[in-house]
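We store amino acids, tokens; thus:
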Amino acid sequence: MCNLFNQTSAKEAMRRVFPDRPWDDGTGNLGPADIYPDRDAAIVRRDGESMVLARARWGLPSPPQFHSKSGIDRGVTNVRNTASAHWRRWLGPENRCLVPFDRFAEPGPGGNCWFEIADGRPAFFAGIQVPRWRSIRKLKDGETIDDLFAFLTCPPNAEVAAVHPKAMPVLLLESADWEGWLTLPWTEANRLQRPAPDGSLRRLET
């Protein structure tokens, strides 16, 4: 399960992949960083015909049975079971987003193994966003209202399976898939919940 990724070129990706569409940058001073659960990251969402690079907190609302006795909800970073009633309400185009990344980590023997797109093309995770969600993420902060996100996972391709045989993030590598993820009904968009093609990733030496 991917619980660490890097965003270094999110703004550059917006310029490269949406050159003919207006877009707004709502991320403020959010800079390049390794992204951990419950941290802010950049996501891409539609606003009519425009694209918005927005800021959101990593971790969707958990099912109520997973909240702590004090009401704390740590959030869910990866979504696999899209047949669950808990997730179905957020699978429509209005709740989908693209999550830009430069590389992502999967747990492997001895620690994290990092992967990047082998040919260097821009790519996104297939994201789900839930805006303005009220919850208690940390007891010391009390109740907060946050824009939240997570991304889908699927069975791993060959490169990821070599170190983590359970799952990998759903990667969107083609412009048609970016557009489809943001616009298609779930009955068509669900085909995108699939492993990236074998050979599309390069494992980084650490």
Notes: The radius of gyration is 16 Å. The chain has one domain: 5-203. The longest helix spans residues 175-183. The domain at 5-203 is CATH 3.90.1680.20 (hypothetical protein yedk fold).
